[in-house]
Amino acid sequence: MNLSDERIQRFLASRPVVVLATLQADGSPLAMPMWFLHDARELAMISVAGTQKVRNLRRDPRVSVVAEAGGDPRGDAATRGVTVRGRVQFVTDAEGRRTLADRFLARYQPSVERLWKGRVMPDDRVAFRIVPERVQSWGLS
Length: 141
Hints:
By secondary structure, the protein is an alpha+beta fold. The protein has one domain (6-92, 124-138): Pnp Oxidase, Chain A (Roll). The protein is 26% helix and 38% strand. It has 4 helices and 7 strands, in the order αββββαββααβ. The protein has a 7-stranded antiparallel β-sheet, with helices on both faces. A hairpin with a 4-residue loop joins strand 3 (37-38) and strand 4 (43-48). It is globular and about 45 Å long. The protein starts with 5 loop residues before the first helix and ends with a strand. The mean pLDDT is 94.
């Protein structure tokens, strides 16, 4: 399966948040909900520098991401979802950071602008891309 699959792209566009899992130093997982961007090649995220997840990513770039739409708790509807396993690449160049910031502002307006206190990504934010190595989905039509 490929991230460029139209069903996967449609599903990801419907999800405001995914869960990012990183690896702690002792090998245990740390799972955190994250805003995200997606296209046919990669996922992208922004986080505050110095957080545990960013420290984990700097030490070990392997991640897993889950986007899921749960079924009805009575079992009337099937779940749907996508998992992406891959590696993080940090975006450090000014143009790349600006491009991601603009895309985040467009997708999550006005929340991001309020959080950042303006339309410029604060210096204490870390931007990164997730390059998929394995993509799986279930229940998508």
